[in-house]
Every structure is written in structure tokens, then in C-alpha cells.
Amino acid sequence: MTQTPVVQGNIEAVNQCLRFLTRISSEQFTCVHRPIMSNSIGCHFRHILDMYRALITAMDNLHEGGPAIVDYDIRRRNAACERELQLAKNELVEVLAWLQGLDISDQKSCCTVRTEVTLEETYSAELASGMVRELVFVASHTVHHLAIISIAARLQGVPVEECLGVAPATVTFFKAQTS
Fold first, then answer.
1. How many CB atoms lie within 10 A of CB 52?
2. Which of 75, 121, 157, 164 is the most buried (most CB within 10 A)?
3. Distance (Å, whole) CA 160 – CA 20
4. pTM over 0.85
5. What would the pLDDT profile of 102-141 be if each residue is shown by its tens digit?
6. Do 147 and 160 touch, CB atoms closer than 8 A?
7. How far from chain centre, in Å, is Cα 160?
8. 54 with 72: CB under 8 angstroms?
9. How many CA atoms does the CB half-sphere of 78 hold within 13 Å?
């Protein structure tokens, strides 16, 4: 299936995640390098997975005739996938398969995004959006967390891909500089 550039960008981000996870140990996955870091690499991967799960749940609901609500606040804190490297890999493979089978030919697939927006009070905003827009957001959010993961990895002496956690526009800029 030919993918749209938005879906392809998500596939590339998830493949970066999978390549990175093949290069680290379970100990590195769960290490918290204090005081510089407050979370493990595994916690960041769990968060990435939770963002994709929010999209998958909304798309499943949409296909079943229900409302497509993308709730980014439903998270599995302290989940097994942040402690078990293989489980995180397995979940990423599932996300990859979902992305590879995703048909977003209807560019106007509407959804509602729900997310907390304040620190001092509990207040969730609900916004109209589209699934394509949310795929762009989740890919960008994944890149952001990969940047943090690359710092955590380097603190542990783990070599990382040069463009791990680098935004696509920055990669394009760097390519233009070397041309």
C-alpha cells in the first residue's frame, strides 16, 4: 500500500524507535541517570506508545461508528512496557503494523482531542481536529521524546543514530548545508 507522507513520517519515527531499542540492554532501558534525568528511557517509550494508543483507540471507535475522541491523558503510568524492553518492542511492532495498514484517504477524518491544559486546576480542553493533524502531532511528539531518549542514551555511553530525535525540517536544513 502506498502511504501518504504523513503516515510515512510516522512509520519512519516508529522504525527509528525500533532500531534504537535493538541497540540497548534491559538495564539501559530502565536506568534513570539522576540527577540529570528523572525518567528512564523505558518511561519515554511508554509515553510514545500511549500517544499512538490514543490515536488507535479513536480510529477504532470511528470505524465502529462511535465518536473519534483522541484522549492524550489516558496513560499507563508504571506499565510493564516501560520496564520490559521486549514488551516495548512488541508494542512498537503493533503500532508499526497499524500504521502500515492505515488508510487516511479521507483527509477530513474528524476527531475530538481531549487533553488537560492547566497545572493548578484540573481542566481538560476539547478541540475539533482531524486524524491527519493528530498523526502529524504524534510523529512530532515522538521526535521530541527521541531527542530526550538520545540524551539519556549518551549519558549511558550508548551510541545513537545521528538523526535520532532530530526534526524532519532540521534534517532537510542539514542536507541543504552539505549540498
1. 24
2. 164
3. 7
4. yes
5. 988 765 578 999 999 999 999 999 999 999 999 999 999 9
6. no
7. 18
8. yes
9. 0
- Return the number of other C-beta atoms located less than 10 Å from residue 121's C-beta: 7
Q: Exposed, middle or buried by CB within 10 Å (0-12, 13-18, 19+), for 81?
A: buried
**What gap in Å lies between CA 63 and CA 109, rounded to an integer?**
11
Please give the Cα distance from 49 to 59 (Å, whole number). 15
Q: What is the DSSP letter of 119?
A: S
Cell for 21?
531499542
Q: Which residue has the cell 482531542?
A: 113
- Per residue in 1-28, pLDDT (tens digit) is 568 999 999 999 999 999 999 999 999 9
Amino acid at 94: E
DSSP per position, 39-106 = S-HHHHHHHHHHHHHHHHHHHHHHHTTS--EEETT---TT-GGGT-HHHHHHHHHHHHHHHHT----S
Determine the residue type at 171. Answer: V
Query: Contact at 8 Å (CB) between 54 and 46?
Result: no
